[in-house]
Amino acid sequence: MGDWTMLPEVNEDREGILAGIECFALDMDGTVYLGERWIEGAREFLKRIEDSGKRYVFLTNNSSKNAQVYVEKLRRMGLEVGMDKVVTSGQATIYYLKRYFPGKRVFLLGNDMLAEEFEKEGIVLVEEKPEVVVTAFDTTLTYAKMCRVCDFVREGLPYIATHPDYNCPTETGFIPDVGAIHAFIHASAMRYPDRIIGKPNADMMDYLIERTGADRAKTVMVGDRLYTDIAAGRNNGLWSILVLSGEASMKDAEESEVKPHLIFDSVREIMRYL
After folding, report:
1. pLDDT score at 3
2. What confidence tier does 13 reach under pLDDT thresholds 50, 70, 90?
3. Which is deepest, 43, 83, 162, 196, by most CB within 10 Å?
């Protein structure tokens, strides 16, 4: 934990909490859209944030795409935003690598578009003799790729992951995410990642605060996952809102040790308090 002021364990003062929020950190998959479809009321919610003099930024663990792809996707869906509005676990991982492994050769288990973002930022990607292993949400996964990454992990190389999510929500259900890949690697190489960058971990949230310049105590993390989105807020000095439009259900929230400050059916329901 940092040196920020601890927030209340439970607080149902919706109007009071939201009145003090200046920045909304919004998860994407399962929170504002599913696939190529906006969750009902999400577009109006984004406009209401801006109309109320507040701001928002998209904060996603999904590293199967780079930030530019998200900007283009949102444009196809009718929302024009700049790169400054999108913060990804891939970007946070690049930041971490530059800080702690500058100039090191990296084997990246990830999609081509993420590899392009890494290389554009000066990360040296290699297929042989890497010095660091990075695993991301690779939707082009092959058995040959899995054999290679397991070999490198088994060698004892530093092993970094972009995020921990087990599943990614889609319009038709859930698909295995990088957490499932980690389970495969562990079964073969007997190691889990040494460092996981994305939500709920501090590296991602520190990167968010640095990028936005936001005050933690006036920032709320809004998402559909208890173990990533809500824990990210709880563990790092931000407010947290769980929406029930994606992965987590009310039953999950009731049974979880990680408790959101507030719960809404969807972001649409938040609008009345802005």
Report:
1. 42
2. confident
3. 162
Tell me whether residue 215 is annotated as binding: no
190-210 pLDDT, tens per residue? 999 999 999 999 999 999 999
Active-site residue among 3, 27, 177, 203?
27
151 is catalytic: no
Pairing mode, strands 55-60 and 105-109? unpaired
51 labelled ligand-binding: no
Q: Is there a catalytic annotation at residue 203? A: no
Please tell me the distance from the alpha carbon of residue 266 to that of residue 30, in angstroms, as a whole number: 9
Q: Which amino acid is residue 255, in one-letter code?
A: E
Residue 182 sits at φ, ψ, to 5 deg, of: -60, -35
Say yes or no to pLDDT of 98 above 70.
yes
Fold type of domain 14-61+201-273: Rossmann fold (3.40.50)
Whole-number Cα distances in Å, 90 to 26, 118, 148: 16, 8, 21
Query: Over the stretch 212-262, which tens digit does the pLDDT of each residue have?
Result: 999 999 999 999 999 999 999 999 999 999 999 988 999 999 999 999 999
- Distance between CA atoms of 174 and 162, rounded to whole angstroms? 19
List beta partners, residue 29. 33
Q: Which CATH superfamily is domain 91-196 in?
A: HAD superfamily/HAD-like (3.40.50.1000)
* E strands, 90-181, in order: 105-109, 124-125, 132-135, 159-161, 167-170, 173-176
